[in-house]
């Protein structure tokens, strides 16, 4: 007979085939392979560039059919899939993968805002759903978690495969079976054990024969062991898969876990046993059992289960475990008429630390934050990490509102103490929203949502504090969602307009330029000034889109005026700091100028001093590129922010604008207004133009003109005008 050695490694393909066993795919030790499927080449390219920096093997396909064809060899570890694609969309692609038997984890990366799109993707097996635009760390974390889960699944499958192989081999090689085989007499004493017992437990056969089973069973498992080792049932009713902890006397001295399959044997009385003449029922001879070591499997299952419900970075419960505990807490509180507090904690300033010091330092900061917050918990409280820099806290048995406020304040105090990261001192704060059960909601979903809404109110109010939920907050939040949706529709339905604020040369009273201002022709509220909707635009990532619309429309109007021989020196456009984030604002403006045939000298961009602070090096490069093609640069609201003459020297600035707050203070032409004089002096010293905005009275105009400011704008001369009205004023002025 051929002897086949047994090892802990998976069986070879030939042996598995001979035994009728499936061959599982081994976990690869090389770089993870990732397929990006997105018809938007720019998005796919940017994702690929980001993931390649993490040493992933990334490929891109622009269509679903191409992707499915390349995935058919099942050699990919992850797929990043867009939903909205021509031909076969993302949902259909997932259906096709399932129909084709292609098993690959899928993360949906889509701009779809409809919740049905996300639900549809998750129902089809997507392991995550990221909405465009997303933060780089969100994508990297999602990909890392997906690949880690993939690796653990493959390892678990290999482990289960080894156990299945052991079961099949039992049929062929009983004497070499890697399980403990034993028999017991009716009193529970061992009558037989195989050599595997010595290999696993350290006991020789002679040591166990005649011993009671309780001598090797963990004391806490003796009650369950009675059903295993003194089993009296047969067939399908016999005990199966009962887990027991066994004592061992090996060098490790480690407790081991076994999965026991038991069978009670009934013998014919004419064979080895006797029975009374009147007894027609078979007598119990003893118990036969098979015990398999599943210690490694239990460890793997515990590890997978733990990681499924805990955050890998901070070792805190994750969102899933937090929701489970919150759900149980609400049920318990309802039954016992007790209170619950739910807190939503968002770190203030974490993004700045992450961007300036790097993600590695950001991760260390999150770990330190988690440790400080954990130190302030009561027994029974649950702290969870539910997002990048977001935490949630469950406080059961809260009797008073002040108790929750006290704990929130402890969190704030602990976070206000400086953190040390790589030799650098970092300061941090947090915004905390609090919802109470049952006042603010009786369901898990309502409590989490209301705590989140309250946290947002703290952000709006200036951060670094806590706030209890109030019903009026939800109305404001719903209004915000409505406004954001309407803003998306405003661009599609052409509801935006450009108004022009004339800039006047006081000496000639002629219009020499204008400031382009956005207006929203709201279908219900009428014409809305920029201040009524631009904060929502900036907060929700629409500024670049609206700025592109503004640039194109201003260039179109300039083209019309030039073709009609209307004299206009320049139009200025306000640029938000967000417009400089991607580094393409200069390219956008240059393209618009070329497309409409506009001389670059007719366009001026207005920036605030915040651009100098957020990323000065990046801003210098982009503004210099604009200046190189002839676009002039104006600093708006000069003197109200982080003013610095050093910035003026570094930046290619051509114009300073005196803020309306300084102009408003002028009430006497013969008075002394040092801030106005200072701005004009700086402009003169650096050979810059100076424009005063918000000029509303003749006294203001007279003082400014006497001080050397000859360019002004404001209601004294004209309000902001719609395009047609401004065109008419150019005709009159001409």
From TrEMBL:
InterPro entries noted in UniProt: Biofilm_reg_signaling (IPR052155), CheY-like_superfamily (IPR011006), EAL_dom (IPR001633), EAL_sf (IPR035919), GGDEF_dom (IPR000160), Nucleotide_cyclase (IPR029787), PAS (IPR000014), PAS-like_dom_sf (IPR035965)
Keywords, ordered alphabetically: Phosphoprotein
Gene3D superfamilies with a match to the protein in the record: 3.30.70.270, 3.40.50.2300, EAL domain, PAS domain
Superkingdom assignment: Bacteria
Domain Response regulatory: 33-147
Residue ranges of every copy of the PAS domain listed in the record: 166-231
4-aspartylphosphate sites (modified residues): 82
Domain GGDEF: 338-471
Designated name of the protein: Two-component system response regulator
Organism of provenance: Noviherbaspirillum aridicola
